[in-house]
Amino acid sequence: MKHRATYDQMYAKFNQKLWERIIKKNHRGRRVEKLYNATTKFSRTRIYMGELALAFTFMFTSVLFGNGSNLPNNTTLVYPFYQVSTLECRTLEWDAMPDSCKINLPIIHGANYETYQYDKTYTDIYTVLRGASYSLGRDQSVGAHSATDIATAKGTPMYAIADGEIYSAGWNSAYGNLVRLKFKYNGKIYYAVYSHLDSYSVKAGDLVKKGQEIAKVGNTGNTSGALGGYHVHFEMDQDASGRPAYSYNGCADLAVGHYQIIQQGLCRVELFKNTLDPIAFLESAWATYPDTSDHGSAPTEPTTPSEPETPTEPTTPTTPELPTTPTEPTTPVQPTQPEEDTKNLIELDYNKLDLTGKEFLNKRDITIEQSTKEAISLDQTITFTITIKHKQTGEAFHGTLNQPLLFIASNTNVTLDPVSTVLVSQGKAIVTLTPQKVGSVYLAINKGMAKIWGTTIVIK
Ligand SMILES: [Zn+2]
């Protein structure tokens, strides 16, 4: 240790001088020796005391400031990417690809995934959303993925989303090359987690500026390899007593393994407690593109918040559910168990409904039966029977719904008739699914804008 060598040198020099002085002043052997020993002991103790005090000072400062109170407070953030590659160019390396392969990171305004759910520009890039499974990457109601996966080519530069401190930069068997950025936003500590990186250019303790390039996209660690494999698993962890809170901490199902947790939608309570939806978080912070023209230095803070980014936003408030605990169901809502029979009742997620939808359902029960859940052949059909009854009286609803029930198919492998319904006759509405092509289709049921159910149907 460098400082120890310095101390030892100082100590030796000090003793030498002291010895000389004692020799000169005292000529009586024993007494001199005694005095020398005593002084040595004292000086040694003093040096160690000094060292100890120094160590305490460091400890104390880390106690006082290690919780992030020394971090600059961010009031705006930037996206982790400025540009990403198009799907066609995903196999090329970033530095070798023509500019025509590069597009600005598509922004999901208002974190409104519904709006963009069939737009390939978005679905090719945002491949797995937080709360989704790998197989249904954009259905946030079925899985327990802790981050948003953003797919782009190998080597795509990534930027610090805030002024902050690198909490860690290193290898993790699951996350591959992993960088965690600790930062303060509106007075609260967060950790932005960049993983599966090809490389990174920071180390733990580095202070970074918002928009500073810190890493390049890779495919390291435990990745699923979809769409060329290169992607960042971009996670937003909330402060939990000064430490990054990995999403599944405290989950009883942890032994099942992360893949199964994600696929089966286990540990969602812990997921929603410990992580935030990165897209919603950035959007709520009026994130802008990082200023990449001047790598390393922070883009000058706009004097006015960068609102211009979203002038075309619809008038609906876009405030995503942040940062307080999301209103996610801790336990799936059981639509008041009707009699068990052979019909396949679809479980609807009423928690996704807006206030108007909930108000309607407070008084009524909706059940939807699906005639078969098996894979079907081209000549078969599936019918969905929607039954709406009054909760107390059991009276069948007859009339027009305040919000339509929408039936949405992800492709043209099937046709639906009707595609939406507001008219319910004698408590019932029936939708028929007719296969058109062999393959699979993702089917969703919306009530108004809120998705309340989704499944994949296979046509043999
Ligand atoms: Zn991921």
What are the key terms here?
single chain; 460 residues; alpha+beta; Glucose Permease (Domain IIA); Immunoglobulin-like; 3 domains; twelve-stranded mixed beta sheet; five-stranded antiparallel beta sheet; 8 helices; disordered N terminus; binds zinc ion
Please characterize this protein's 3D structure:
With 460 residues, the protein is an alpha+beta fold. The chain folds into three domains: 45 residues; 237 residues, Glucose Permease (Domain IIA) (Distorted Sandwich); 116 residues, Immunoglobulin-like (Sandwich), CATH 2.60.40. It is built from eight helices and 23 strands. The strands form four sheets. Strands 1, 4, 5, 6, 7, 8, 9, 10, 11, 12, 13 and 14 form a twelve-stranded mixed beta sheet that branches. A five-stranded antiparallel beta sheet has the order 15-16-17-21-19. Helix 1 packs antiparallel against helix 2. The chain is elongated. The N terminus is likely disordered. The protein binds zinc ion (ZN). The site of zinc ion has 5 residues, from loops.
